[in-house]
Amino acid sequence: MNDSTGLTLIPPSVAPALDRAFRPASLATRAFRELARASKAAVLIELALEQADGSVFRFQTEALPEGHPQAGANFIQLERMVKFLLWSRGGFRIYFNGPKFLGAALEKHFRETPTGKFDSEIVGGRIFDRAIEVVMTRDLPAERLNTTPLGRHLEGCRIGFDLGGSDRKVAAVIEGNVVFSEETVWDPYFQKDPQYHFDGIMDSLRKAAAHLPRVDAIGGSAAGVYVNNRVKVASLFRGIPLEVFNSKVKDMFLNIRKEWENIPFEIVNDGEVTALAGSMALKQNGVLGISLGTSTAGGYVNREGNITSWLNEMAFMPVDYNPGAPVDEWSGDYGCGVQYFSQQCVGRLLPVAGIKVDASLPLPEKLKHVQSLMAAGDERARKIYQTIGVYLGYALAHYADFYDFGHMLILGRVTSGAGGEVIIDCAKKVLAEEFAKSVKPIVFHVPDEQEKRHGQAVAAASLPKLKN
What we know:
By secondary structure, the protein is an alpha/beta fold. The protein has three domains: 39-136, no CATH class; 157-273, 2-Layer Sandwich (Nucleotidyltransferase, domain 5); 283-455, 2-Layer Sandwich (Nucleotidyltransferase, domain 5), CATH 3.30.420. It is 38% helix and 19% strand.
């Protein structure tokens, strides 16, 4: 199958039961790479992404030579790859060494198209405080990776918290042991007053503090991007007008720290803490984590055991190249991870599976219904989980082109119960049948209930280093 750009889209050998139109990014990318090399005249493209702290990430790919019958596919393949790099690595400046017309088209994409402007505004403007720019040059900067040995500090009396889209969790930790934990339902997404968030977080912290003789440090995780404890962009605050966000939300955690007498305090993306928790529990590095919850969270601990400055925002990374793929409601882009690895995916697959529910039900309730059907042996529910598992297998093959990992941590409400086993079994089937020779072995890990409750809290609590 080809779309209008000429990019070859390959049907998966292991087809998802409820999505016959799925065209994996991993297969399209591999097919394009083989086509470019078979031309005997492949054009090298070098890319570098620069972050505000001076980190630079290098990557290279190939394009079809001018005059090739499918040369029209060059731009869409490049644009999808750059989007993946932007949301996995992050950066505001893209250095480009390749055909000038492709570099110019990429620059125009970020300046004029709705999805490109969204990426420029969020990744560039909101996270790195400047719009994305494309610099065409043959002299790319050298790669520089700033890693952070953040976490793994267990001494003292600490509070760990995690802020999700449907609940917030908190734990009191003494010398690495959880002495209190609590989960509180909340609804932060569309609240217009940030006081709702502030009061909720403070309430959880105070409850945890009541179980400690003192509070030496506080560490937290939440959906979104946080730099030096400042909120850059986060779906938790989606309902807050931008001017209020800038005045009341950006420094919210700095203000919370003041309420606790400026003790050591760190908040990072929830996916990073998930990966850190997995690395700590497994005593392994090279861990990629993905959480299938209200949205899609990701995190990465590199081979040295450190959290990097990468964004790892898997919700926005393209995994399906079918131009008719589901569209993300926030970015307006198609085929992005949030529509494949979250409660949103379960919701959109319900009617396809023939399961009727009240359309007004919130996504967590729809998921509970599917879980109850799965527990009762309903084949329609099984097909939902099978479809997600096939998505995951093909996505992991794509992630392996960008991440060096051997351990995959899977969690989130979508993976709870028997459905989670189906997801993993189907992902393993895809990797074994489609990518046995091209993807290094991946070991899957699913934390048990205690690990999920306490592991994340302990990892979050371990983020700050105590003052000497």
